[in-house]
Amino acid sequence: MGKRKKAAKRPQSSRQKVPLDTAFTCLFCHHDKSVTVRLDRKEGVAQLACRVCDQRYQSKVNHLTEPVDIYSEWIDAADAAQRDEPAARPAAASSSRPVAVMASDDSDDE
Questions:
Q1: At a CB cut-off of 8 Å and minimum separation 6, what does 64 contact?
Q2: Domains contained in the chain, number
């Protein structure tokens, strides 16, 4: 039996894998690269925080989630909050007691 020939090296393709950003511009204070995203895949939670103005956002993650995905979700959530879309916001906790309305004593008709 003869020796195997070494496989010829393939020329590297012109498209190289470019890593995605992990530091982003803050929507509120507009500082470049001040927002960082931490993914905890074991717990299934992502945390986004601005180190300048301390804005924070938290979201669920799966095995395909990348930091840019969490940043995009944050932008969408901020837009929805600005438009006051009640369907986009989670229901706020409320007490079961009704709010008491104070009666005004401005009537001098007696």
A1: none
A2: 1
